[in-house]
Amino acid sequence: MSGFMILVLYLVAFFGSYLIASNLLRGLFESKGFNKLKTVTFGDESAVVANRLASVISVVTVFWLWVAFTNSTIPLPKMPGPYQGDVEFTYTLTLPDGTTDDATVAVRVYREDIQQTRDADGNPGRIPEAPEIDEGDGAALNDSLTVARYGFKVINVWQNDAVAKRDGSVVTHLNGRPVEPGDKITIPEGEIGLTDKGTPTFEPKTGFRMARLYLPAPEVVLERFFRLNEEGYQNFTLWEHTWISLQRVLLGFFFGALLGIPIGYAMGLTNWSRGWFDPIVEFMRPVPPLALIPLMIIWFGIGELSKVILLFLAALWIMIIAARAGVSGVAITKVHAAYSLGASKMQILWKVIIPNSLPEIFTGARVAMGVCWGTVVAAELVAAERGIGMMIMVASKFQLTDIIIVGIIVIGIIGFLIDMGIRRLEGWLVPWKGKV
Amino acid sequence: MSGLLINDISMRFDLPNGGHVQALKNVSLDIKSGELMSVLGPSGCGKTTLLNIVAGFLAPTEGEITLNGDRVVGPSPERGMVFQQGALFEWMSVRDNVSFGPDMKGMSRKESAANVDHLLEVVGLQDFKEKAVYELSGGMQQRVALARCLANEPDVILMDEPLGALDALTREKMQSLVLDLWKETGKTIILITHSVEEALLLGERLLVMAPRPGRVHKEYRLPFADLGVGNDLREVKKHPEYNSTREEILEMIWNMEEEIMGRAEENA
Ligand SMILES: Nc1ncnc2c1ncn2[C@@H]1O[C@H](COP(=O)(O)OP(=O)(O)OP(=O)(O)O)[C@@H](O)[C@H]1O
Ligand SMILES: [Mg+2]
Fold this sequence. Notes:
The complex is a heterodimer of chains A (about 425) and B (about 270).
Chain A: H1 2-24, H2 26-29, H3 52-68, E1 85-94, E2 100-110, E3 143-148, E4 153-154, E5 170-174, E6 177-178, E7 184-187, E8 190-194, E9 200-204, H4 218-230, H5 238-269, H6 271-284, H7 293-300, H8 304-328, H9 332-340, H10 345-382, H11 388-397, H12 401-429
Parallel strand pairs in A: 2-3
Antiparallel strand pairs in A: 1-2, 1-5, 4-9, 5-6, 7-8, 8-9
Chain B: E1 4-14, E2 20-31, E3 36-40, H1 47-55, E4 62-67, E5 70-71, E6 79-82, H2 94-98, H3 100-104, H4 109-122, H5 138-151, E7 156-160, H6 168-185, E8 188-192, H7 196-202, E9 205-210, E10 215-221, H8 224-228, H9 233-236, H10 240-267
Parallel strand pairs in B: 3-8, 3-9, 6-7, 7-8
Antiparallel strand pairs in B: 1-2, 1-4, 4-5, 9-10
The structure holds adenosine-5'-triphosphate and magnesium ion.
């Protein structure tokens, strides 16, 4: 239900903000420079420029949806929340002899995540006491209990009553309305009803916001982020987990490139090498690195060696193929020209083939780094002593959704930074890429 | 024995499907040192193949080539090559491209600097020394290619449609440049072109090749190249013989193309 509403709101935000912004901020929607003179823009991909206003609204929208559908304290418009506080309802007990008596049930609905909150002194919150009541008198006595938000309680109202259920006393009315087993009555605070066996139940209203277990509020995630950096989780801080994962990727990629690039060149330069490595490369290329994880664990355990070798293998085939493609991408006229200018084979390799293959190598490196980063997380999810994937995996066992979300965000940011770093390096080392 | 001797060469390409293409058949040419020869012919008549054999990139199936008495067995700096485009090294500056040949010989930058600077001046690129080649226009790039070839001081310069990718105006300027360089350096030049005008203007000798199999069809000795040195090429084009020869060659190639089309239709 909430998922459907999120989708609808997202679409409304997309079209709504477009309509509003395009009318209010005309200037921002006009194409600039040469594109302004184009009469054909729909279908001309080069005339399509990302509207930065849309990007900003898009990010804000996602953030707002996150706030709106969680029990966040951030003051933004939110969806109706779950009921929290005290609520009372009455039940009517009909005894075997036909006499009836009413009693009240007082329920205290408390935050489901109360134990994960901290007060000013850093002490965890505690589940509150049930409301204080006077039991009253008669056949049915008043009850008092607590229930967590999003929770559900089957209430044994007979526990303090004069005539037990098995002796034939039956709940026949709730809040004065006659009910049969299985019935439900909606009250402003939630739903009261009877089970199939006739025991009263209470389910506080959930609203449309998600419980912390499913989606913690942004500020909860942010706070967790800082706590992970200070206190850490599973003996290591967030930064240590991230760094160890990154280190595995860098090592694996380094060795993969160190071996893969020369093999790729050899495959592009000599028949024997091409024939020799072709079967292995063609066979290993379609094997997803994830499929190698179990074997790596059996062979090398769950420590560093196992991870680095896995990532080495993940990068190796990609770099071999990139280097081979780099060699085959050398225009034969360049090679001919170099020979005609008196270059030896070694000089051809160093002065022509290697520089000419750099763009392909960089493309390969970007792919390899992406694959390695994904693979290391997956490998750590399966088994590891530390690492960002391991942090997520352990957190999921304890249902610490906020840690999982922090982990995912960090993984995304690091992956993005890696890619950007390689692109920077590429722009610096291969300035001619795409210009010839 | 001075000069380039092409002695009865034939070239047959075996095709993967078992057939073969006779790209050249019994081609013989005697090119004196310092001659400028242009080569014309319909597409597919084996011009590039001939040049590649002279450059040493391909070995002919029959016959042999000698340069100053030495048999050609592979590429060598004494036979320089200028390609249509895309043969410059993008990862190097203009100057590094031009000094590539001397660098390969192990010459120090100090030794080669004077010559490189001189050549860049000759082709009018002294102000672009430090530029990357991909920042230059097509015409400028071809001038770099010329300078790079000359820096190696080859005996023979082979050009495969060197001006083919240029616009008409740039092309005219480059034609003058080629003529001037030819006179100044006295190099032997073989220049392939698709343009009859260019072949007339730049060819001291003009070779018309015919296809299937590729062979020499007719040869001309022309005065226009000498007339064009240091002069306005447009004036040369007003020469009465220029127009009549042009018409004759156009007619000749036109007929060859017709014949090829006809044969293609028969085969179809
Ligand atoms: N490597 C090769 N394998 C098979 N056939 C080839 C090969 N190279 C050239 N040919 C054939 O040889 C013939 C001559 O080709 P070539 O490239 O020398 O022609 P050309 O005169 O330079 O043509 P153009 O004017 O179009 O450049 C053509 O029919 C071509 O198909
Ligand atoms: Mg050709």
